[in-house]
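Narrative progress, year one. The postdoctoral researcher (J.K.) led the effort to move from monomer predictions toward full complexes, under supervision of the PI. The following entry was the first complex the group processed end to end, covering 358 residues in total.
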Amino acid sequence: MANEKRMDVVILGLLRHDTMTGYEIKKRIDTALKYFWSGSFGSIYPTLNTLEKDGYVTKAETTENGRAKIIYTITEKGHSRLKEWLSAPVVKDELHYETLLKLFFGGELGVEGTLQHIQNFEDKIRGELPILEMCVAQLEGILEEEEHKYYLLTAKFGVETYRGYLKWCKDAKEILGKE
Amino acid sequence: MANEKRMDVVILGLLRHDTMTGYEIKKRIDTALKYFWSGSFGSIYPTLNTLEKDGYVTKAETTENGRAKIIYTITEKGHSRLKEWLSAPVVKDELHYETLLKLFFGGELGVEGTLQHIQNFEDKIRGELPILEMCVAQLEGILEEEEHKYYLLTAKFGVETYRGYLKWCKDAKEILGKE
DNA sequence: TGGCTCATGTAATCTGTTACATGATTCT
DNA sequence: AGAATCATGTAACAGATTACATGAGCCA
């Protein structure tokens, strides 16, 4: 596997502007990074402990409204580590679409079943595209903030590829349609 | 993890028309499935043994040109298992692009470095797109064979999304360009 | 002869997810 | 009161990659 999800740098990246609890980090991953990344508590909490042990973040145990929290803050060393990773070339870009695997072996399933997979895919994309488009529109209105440009890049990536997907869905149905 | 690479069904899918050795299965994964799937020997051979033990494939040890080979053949039970998986809805489509993660945190790296990541991405896509386009052209010429339609679906998916990527690269550079 | 491809396999290692365990507060 | 959310964490388990180990043919 070799560090697939890069939870270490994901956490450092999310902490680079704000201090956060592990729980908040999870929420951020599930919202802001949702379309291209994921991570579970079982991976976040142990990574936070390792990062703290190695001096990349510091922890502060507090109580807010009676709730015990551990708020993490990135250190200088943490910033360096993040920058180092950011400067390094991309190691792995991987598209892992089970849908494509099912289409590739579609001959075994037949036209009807394969069309259903395409339809399911299309429905999912059609449902998500408006959200991404809204995201783009919103970010385009607040570009004075330098940081937003970078968020816009990833949101636009989603919109562009999703539009490509929908075009492909049309082609795909035609290919299977003319028997 | 929970069966990420679905090596079991990948193998059954590849064996559905031809008998193959583990080595040949690996080659097929690295060529035909290359753009959306991967797998290593350390995962293929153990899976083949399990599949054989459970009656989804049969093995035949032979010698060809003095080379010992184990040729695997799918059974009826194997076909059923494959069809069952094919009929089930897609569980997980995951895009895992480290590039997007680096762009999202790009504010920490700066414009120059981020542009470099985009350029690297573009170069890779530009290098691969012609291969996929050739693939599509070739498959479109031999569509009488029913099976080829399904291969065409996945190849076209690649072409369509790659074109979307290139369009995005242009946008992305503009976003970072106007400071 | 040396290097590449064919061919099979195992073991160490990594690390991620799932499920479980616990408990407080806030909303309805 | 009960459900949902906030909040932290561990342990079992799954499964994938890497590196190692071995050996035979083929080509230059």
